[in-house]
Design goal:
Helices cover about 25% and strands about 20% of the residues. The chain is an alpha+beta fold and about 60 residues long. It has a single domain, classed as Alpha-Beta Plaits. The structure holds iron/sulfur cluster (SF4). Iron/sulfur cluster (SF4) binds next to helix 1.
Length: about 60
């Protein structure tokens, strides 16, 4: 699984990094970055949760 954050859409709320810190981290521009190439199997559910919880739907998941 891969995860992507649309930098133009992200409003920097920090929710994804809170829900799934294995995959998402806030950067200096106060948007979220994906910090792994491939989402680890044990973090897949949390990554989906983060995507579902993003208030502006900035996260896309490629299964
Ligand atoms: S949850 Fe969405 S808006 Fe909030 S930091 Fe993550 S990608 Fe950005």
């Amino acid at each position: 699984m891969k995860a992507y954050v649309d930098q133009d859409t992200c409003i920097g709320c920090g929710l994804c990094a809170e829900i799934c810190p294995e995959v998402f981290a806030m950067n200096d521009q106060m948007t979220a970055d994906v910090i792994v190439e491939i989402v680890p199997a044990e973090a897949e559910d949390a990554a989906r949760d983060a995507s579902d919880s993003c208030p502006v739907s900035a996260i896309s998941i490629e299964e």
